[in-house]
Design goal:
Layout: H1 6-34, H2 41-62, H3 66-101, H4 107-115, H5 125-136
Helix pairs in contact: 1-2, 1-5, 2-3, 2-5, 3-4, 3-5
């Protein structure tokens, strides 16, 4: 039985994480187009964030190095922040609809109804998932050498051959 080296397992895990993040980002763009999520500047934000994620992932895959790893690490939190803003916008929109359609309902009852409103509250969460998956792929990345977080203990170089 052949046992994979820790480095090859890490490489495969990075590939899976980045692939999943890229697939989610691309799927998000398709879904946004199909649902005509284009009414205002705020509705274009997820297009920009998902495209940014695809660009950063592509850069890291094509040119893995300290600059591309760090750039991805610094930009993925923007997707998480955008996700939170999107959820707040969706909730705000749902609350406004509830107030208009059922003005007699107030407080927690209105908030509860808004959770199930026309604007899907958790849909923007996909951007947070993209950000976390892509960021996780950079933990201990060999391009960062020993300075990388959660480094596997090596220098990022292959061990010297003994024979």
């Amino acid at each position: 039985m052949t046992v994979a080296s820790p480095r090859s397992v890490e490489t495969r895990l990075r590939t899976v994480l980045l692939g999943a993040a890229a697939a989610c980002a691309a799927g998000t763009i398709v879904e946004l187009v199909l649902t005509e999520h284009t009414e205002g500047v705020l509705q274009w934000t997820p297009f920009v964030l998902a495209s940014l994620a695809l660009g950063m992932i592509g850069w890291l895959v094509r040119r893995p190095g300290p600059t591309s790893v760090r750039a991805l690490q610094w930009t993925m939190p923007l997707l998480v922040a955008g996700s939170v803003v999107g959820m707040a916008q969706h909730m705000s929109g749902n609350l406004a609809i509830e107030a208009e359609v059922k003005p007699q309902i107030e407080g927690m009852a209105r908030a509860w109804n808004a959770l199930f409103g026309a604007n899907p509250l958790l849909a923007p969460g996909i951007l947070a998932l993209v950000g976390v998956l892509a960021w996780a792929a950079t933990i201990g990345h060999p391009a960062l050498g020993q300075s990388g977080e959660a480094s596997s203990g090596g220098s990022g170089e292959a061990p010297a051959s003994t024979g």
